[in-house]
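Our preliminary data section would be incomplete without showing what the modeling component actually yields. Below, a chain of 481 amino acids is followed by its predicted structure, encoded as tokens that our downstream tools consume directly.
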Amino acid sequence: MTAPHATGAEEAEPLTLSSGKGRWVIAATVLGSGIAMLDATVVGIALPSINRTFHGNVGTLQWVVTGYSLTLAAFLLLGGSLGDRYGRKRIFSFGIAWFAIASAACGVAPTSLFLIVARIVQGVGGALLTPGSLAIIQASFREEDRSRAIGAWSGLGGVASAAGPLVGGYLLAVASWRWVFFINLPVAAFVLVMTARHVPETRDPSTAGKVDSTGAALAVLFLAGLTYGLIEGPTRGWTDPLVLGALVLAVVAGPAFLVLEHRRAHPMLPLDLFRSRQFTGANAVTFAVYGALGGALFLLPIELQLVAGYSPLESGLALLPLTVVMLLFSARSGQLSARIGPRLQMSVGPVLVGAGLAVTVAPLTATAMNAAPAEHSGIASAVNNTVARAAGLFAVAILPLLSGLTGAAALSPAEFSAGFRTAVYICAAASAAGGLLGVLMIRNPTRRPAAAPAECTFHCGVGGPPLRPVLVAAPAGGRQR
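Predicted structure:
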């Protein structure tokens, strides 16, 4: 028998992937989360142009990126919790609208400080919409189509993220860096219309108690304090009162957050999720891989334009192979994961780095989601997204420090090139460490006796084969299979 649909759909039949409404739901969630993913990478290609406009330094460029990543990572857990409680469609739509307004503010920014603040606000909108997009799929589709829908979301969303440099390069060639933000407005409007018409409302009926606002505040203080200290320490000095205060704040807020979540009856982050070795392992690999990629993709467009003399469009085209590899192999990786389990790809994929992204992303997301109870789909999605965004946040904050790229002199071509080589070696080591974590922590599902395809419920990846069979009641006088 198939498991009941226990994720809180409100008087609506579970959707099928082959139905028109199911396809609209996929389109809305992919485009919605896609603009948040795209904005995390598309800005990278515009950093040299932004720097020429505002005459900043490496620290300014770091804050343009980390201002967004900071609030995105800090509020993802709250966004997932709010969606489970008040309705995933409602919070997703609110996040889309918030994101669009903040994008417009980024586009008209008159100063670098205004742009950084607008990016911080934009990250909050991304945190509201991102976990809801995946939780909507998890909660809305019937069980036998759910993993295929997640595979489509992760694969197409990954393409959107990888396409960021090319889109940014084109917009800079035909307009200016401000259009990197303005392009979000028509996409957001389209997503809001699709969501209103086609996406069913779902929520977790087991939620109770107040929203964990204290936990959210502690998460923000921890990430903000650590990020500020790491970015400003090399410039202000590690003994500067603001830097020291920020780092002390992070040291206090991090453990306080864990203690609070452990003691709460209805925490924003159920720590019991991490009792699952598979869930913990998937998120550990996520941190290593996304940290390596986030750090490399922050510095690579600057290297191409500042040192190699590429135009923004040329540097976007130079990163096109990453997009092509994602497009060609994400679906196939999902199919392979369904056949042999996720352990091989999540171990070997990170070692392959660029190509490994396509091999790793689909099974990585599916493994993290399938390891969590269905009623926690929103928070499980938020945890996995938080880990990925926090990894990129820390990488952008600490990688220039580790590679010697600090201060205004770091933007000279010779010095930046030398530091870039060191940074790439660090990213490669981090990604290889992710592969080792996959070997040690990820286990393939226990195989069960083969069953006919019609009797299977779980699928993984785009068009992937059955992931596990379902027990079907035998006809009278027969035996159960």
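The chain has 17 helices and two strands. The first strand starts at residue 456 and ends at 459. Preliminary results of this kind motivate Aim 1 of the renewal.
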